[in-house]
Write a structure and sequence with these properties.
Layout: H1 3-27, E1 36-40, H2 52-66, E2 73-76, H3 86-96, E3 104-107, H4 113-127, E4 131-135, H5 141-150, E5 155-159, H6 167-185
Parallel strand pairs: 1-2, 1-4, 2-3, 4-5
């Protein structure tokens, strides 16, 4: 076997094992009473309604709030190609489901996972929050947790919605690359 083929097979195996580890980690919800839940943004439709994937995340947050696990939420997202502020749409969705607006903090600058971690960590410090429960798709949990730890938030738990789309396969592959990218940078929260 040539060195190239051997290296390729080792890289492929490493990629596969990382994907399996990310999947197991993401499916292993750790529901702990926390000061705040961080809900990561996703697509908002041109009419301002949230996509099914984002609705699933928000419904999970409503479930956690109503069960008393979290008393506060941070919704974080950017302005997508549709021109809609994801975080504002997320807030509206939650308020429409009887979550008090006073319990929701809005981060409209959460364009990336690193931005969400940096901005949410600052909001947490400002409000005296020490623990966070991360709400996102299962494949995103490992990288999200890593980003928050890099921003000094280490008391973390997580939950994922029961939602699957075929694009999750692509998203999982992308997360393997993203996870190692965040691991190597290790400076997500440095100030400019």
């Amino acid at each position: 076997m040539s060195v190239f083929k051997y290296s390729f097979l080792v890289a492929l195996l490493f990629f596969f094992l990382t994907a399996v580890a990310i999947t197991i980690d993401g499916f292993n919800d750790q529901l702990k009473i926390s000061d705040v839940a961080i809900v990561f943004g996703n697509k908002v439709n041109p009419d301002g309604s949230v996509s099914p994937r984002l609705a699933a995340r928000l419904n999970k947050a409503v479930e956690l709030y109503n069960s008393g696990i979290i008393p506060n939420l941070i919704v974080s997202g950017g302005i997508g190609k549709e021109g809609i502020d994801e975080a504002i749409a997320m807030r509206k969705y939650l308020v429409d489901r009887k979550i008090p607006s006073t319990s929701i903090l809005v981060d409209s600058q959460g364009n990336t996972t690193a931005d969400t971690a940096k901005n949410s960590a600052a909001m947490m410090r400002q409000h005296g929050f020490k623990s966070a429960l991360l709400v996102s798709q299962y494949f995103h949990i490992s990288r999200a947790r890593l980003a928050f730890k890099q921003c000094g938030i280490s008391t973390l738990s997580n939950a994922h919605p029961r939602f699957f789309e075929w694009r999750d396969i692509y998203s999982l592959a992308r997360e393997v690359v993203g996870f190692y990218s965040y691991t190597l940078k290790n400076d997500q929260c440095r100030k400019p």
